[in-house]
Amino acid sequence: MLEGLVSPESLSLSYADMSVPERLKWLQQHQQQEVLSLSSNDSPDLLQILQFHGSNNDELLQSTFSHFQMVGSGFGTNYNMGFGHSHEAMDGYISRTSSCQIHSPDTMGVMLKNSEENRAISLKNKRKSEVCLIIVKTREEEKTEKKIKVEAETESNISNKEASSDTSKETSKGASQIQKLDYIHVRARRGEATDRHSLAERARREKISKKMKYLQDLVPGCNTVTGKAGVLDEIINYVQSLQRQVEFLSMKLAVINPELELGVEDLSVKQFQAYFTNFPVVIASKPSVMVDVPLFPLDQQGSLNLSVSNPNQTSIDAPSESWETQSQSLFASVLR
Amino acid sequence: MQPTSSMNEQFLKNWQMGLQIFRPSIDNTSVSERKRAIKLSADVAMASLRKGTTCWSRALIQKAATEDSFLVRQMLAGIKEETLINRKLPKIVCHRKIVRRSKKILMRRKSSSAMEEVTAKAKKLVKRKTKGLRNVVPGGEFMSNNVLLIQETLDYIVSLQTQVNVMRSIVDAAEAGVER
To answer: B19 and A262 in contact by Cβ < 8 A?
Structure first.
């Protein structure tokens, strides 16, 4: 399990103003400090080291580690844990990425690579924490500059919390660079493509599956079916049956109630509410029951039982015919 | 989400209002006319619960307006929905022949393994079902993506459930009245 390191770069406000070479320089300094600091398990020590190496103090460095202090204090205890675990992971990372080929000729490139690996160790991010950084992958380019993709995950911006709830997974590629871009805040999972499009697609797909789960709860009898097609089928049938019921009920009301009074004067509101609470929502218990044809009164005194049931799964046409024939017979019986 | 009692009451009120509008012209009507009026007012009442926020409600109101615009306008007089009614996306037109031809060409080019064929068939099935769902849900052709479609379906199902419950209880009450 990799722990995360809060990188001050993401917090730096003036970062965008830097050009790329400056950034590289800054990284170089920073990762030197980090290599030293990894051995020490204390955040105050880290800060000291940073200050020590602050001989190359740009304004950047000042501003960034002022931010860093802010965050570091918040993460004080977490920091120790993170660093404690980081060693094995770091070794693993280094070995994994050692075979990664990078075109940059200078030593700076090599140093960068190490730094990136270090930074790739990410703090375990609880949802309540503010900022977490995961470095995704390198993109090898013709130029000597490399780009780091950073996905920052903030509490308010998580578009897909369910996807990123598994925070123990990391990205597959190690080396990375920091680039100032705005990202959709979805965490990439291990072994999956991490470019923007697939992430966005995955976020969309998971939204859809979440909504389908709600639908499964709503539509009776959907729990037994697996797969999107079956659930969609059930939903279609259910909606059609509800629509048919509305038709039938309106026809019945037209027959029974020629004045079109809804009889509110007779019944009080309480009575209506009693009706509403007593009636279960249009749900039947058994999923495979045929559409129940309502029982029509043979004489005028019986009451109609409009039992609701799930639509028949196989044939939709047969029930619709029965609706119509039965409504005609009702009409005939009432006219008698 | 289950239909709440406040939704039921709201629907009932709107429905009654609609029927009141229809009542003056009631004497010479046949059963089918009455049924049509009942159904229309029920649909518009159901749609006005959402006050134009959902796509299906707007589509439903539009459909009702083509049948009886006077009723619709009267029912929606209280709500400034005139503006919201016509705000819709352009219809998604799909020339099937062209699409099929291009898909055939694509399939020829692809070398299909077993897994690919299976997933392709599953996807086709799901697409067909979503098309079916769009036909059933009012305004389905105007929903551009699947996420929206499923959201709208959810809302539509809940509203339909309230409608059916209220109507059924009214019918039963009327039945009980008739028996007496």
So the answer is: yes
Rounded Cα–Cα distance for residues A83 and A97 (Å) = 20
Q: Which residue of B has its CA nearest to A244?
A: B164
What is the average pLDDT score of chain A? 54
Would you call A244 an interface residue with chain B, using a CB distance cutoff of 8 Å?
Answer: no
List, in order, residues 6 or more apart from B2 with CB less than 8 Å away.
A281, B158, B161
Q: Is A236 close to B163, i.e. CB distance below 8 A?
A: no
| Distance, CA of A267 to chain centre | 48
Q: What is the ipTM of this complex?
A: 0.88
* Each residue's pLDDT tens digit, A55-108: 444 554 444 444 444 444 444 444 444 444 444 444 444 444 444 444 444 444
Residue B175: list chain A partners with CB under 8 A.
256, 303-304
Candidates A97, A184, A187; CA nearest to A133 is: A187
Q: Which of these, A64, A58, A82, A77, lies nearest to A10 by C-alpha position?
A: A64
Q: Name which of B38, B126, B169 is nearest A229 (Cβ-Cβ).
A: B126
For the segment B54-74, the average pLDDT, to the nearest whole number, is: 82
The two structure tokens encoding residue A72 = 């570091």
Q: Which of A242, A248, A323, A331 to mutate to test the interface with B (most CBs of B within 10 A)?
A: A242
Q: What are phi and psi of A81, to 5 degrees?
A: -60, -40
| Type of residue found at B130 | T
Q: Do B157 and A235 touch (CB under 8 A)?
A: yes
Burial class of residue B78 (count of CB atoms within 10 Å of its CB; 0-12, 13-18, 19+): exposed
Strands A133-139 and A147-152, bridge-based pairing: antiparallel
pLDDT at A188: 63
- Cα–Cα dist B58/B44, whole Å: 10
Q: Please tell me the number of Cα atoms within 13 Å of A317 on its side-chain side.
A: 0
d(CA B130, CA A233): 9
Q: Smallest Cβ distance to B169: which of A227, A259, A275? A: A275
3-state SS assignment for residue A164:
helix
Structure confidence by residue, pLDDT tens digits, A265-308: 444 444 555 555 544 444 433 333 333 434 343 334 433 334 44
Lowest mean pLDDT, pick from A23-32, B63-72, B109-118:
A23-32
What are the two backbone dihedrals, phi and then psi, of residue A158, each rounded to the nearest 5 degrees? -70, 115
pTM of the model: 0.52
Q: B139: number of CA atoms within 13 Å, CB side?
A: 28
Q: Do residues A23 and A73 lie in contact, with contact meaning Cβ atoms separated by under 8 Å?
A: no
Cα B46 from chain centroid (whole Å): 9
- A215 at B interface, C-beta within 8 A: yes
Question: How near does any CA of chain A get to the CA of B168, in Å?
Answer: 7
Contact check, Cβ <8 Å, B168/A247: no
